[in-house]
Amino acid sequence: DWTPQSFVEETVEDLQKKLGNDKVVLGLSGGVDSSVAAVLLHKAIGKNLYCIFVNNGLLRKNEFESVLKQYEGMGLNVKGVDASKRFLDALAGIDDPEKKRKAIGNAFIEVFDDEAHQIDNVTWLAQGTIYPDVIESVSATGGPSATIKSHHNVGGLPDFMKLKIVEPLKALFKDEVRRVGATLGINPLLLGRHPFPGPGLAIRILGDITAEKVRILQEVDAIFINGLREWGLYDKVWQAGAILLPVNSVGVMGDERTYEKCVALRAVESTDGMTADWVNLPYEFLQKTSNDIINKVKGVNRVVYDISSKPPATIEWE
Ligand code: XMP
């Protein structure tokens, strides 16, 4: 019978046998899967696990600093790398969604490769791959693995890709990963986090990306997500976020005419992200959130709520 306890015991033993005294590098994303994989590996091999957490400049507001602190508090051997500028430079002028994903994937590979090179004699790459990812990469939906593939065909393998791969969560579903994480003593707030796409806010800014647009969207997103938490709605929603539209519209402030940005809010219920329904958030919440956003975020004068289901819409707008 599968229990999280037995899974942890058996996996730790297997990992110790398999890895011995070898060094392992792992990229942390702030999400549930990579965090659980890291804690599991850390339990098995301790300081021989080298974690790298890259700030691509497209994370939520304050997320890099706060998540990095959490990882350090968990005893992980983690290096935070702020590569925001490199990613923003790589994205400059790009407005096509797939080109954005490719630019981000390539920048990530470069940064990660540089960092992995600084660890002497590392021989393994650990990944937080879970069972649904295994299925998805077969269908090549343009996720991170597909990005890595297209990069290979162009430029040859980056060095870290020559490492042996270890994927301790490969047979688990998301709810099992959460249970394993709880057994490992990981903070429930971290385990309960909504999914967040690898390309981050880049695919929630329609059109080209600038530092200023990222800043605006981070402010809007923080008001929305913190509001969901304050109203006890966060855990009732599978995923939520804000989208910055490439549209200005006319408004008034005092006696002045404004011509500013419009943002869309999106909150969905889902079990696996393959299908999704928009969430019927309380009007009072939407009203308060809209007022807060328009009053507090300079440059935004209109808020809309996305009431589209998947299919035919997708969760992300890009
Ligand atoms: P869509 O927009 O396809 O999203 O309905 C389904 C789920 O996948 C996430 N998503 C991504 N995750 N890299 C990722 O790591 C990506 O390029 C990507 N695109 C979408 C999305 O946030 C949702 O949870």
Radius of gyration: 20 Å
What is the number of E strands?
9
Give the strand line-up of the largest sheet.
3-2-1-4-5
The helix tally amounts to 11
Distance N to C terminus:
41 Å
Flag low-confidence runs: 139-155
Q: What CATH architecture label of the largest domain applies? A: 3-Layer(aba) Sandwich
Mean pLDDT over the full residue set: 93
Main sheet characteristics = 5 strands, parallel
Which molecules are bound besides the chains? Answer: xanthosine-5'-monophosphate
Structural class: alpha/beta
Q: How are the elements arranged and paired?
A:
Layout: H1 4-19, E1 23-28, H2 32-45, E2 49-55, H3 63-73, E3 78-82, H4 84-91, H5 97-117, E4 122-126, H6 131-139, H7 144-155, E5 164-166, H8 174-183, H9 188-191, H10 211-230, E6 239-253, E7 256-269, E8 277-278, H11 283-296, E9 300-305
Parallel strand pairs: 1-2, 1-4, 2-3, 4-5, 7-9
Antiparallel strand pairs: 6-7, 7-8
The chain binds xanthosine-5'-monophosphate.
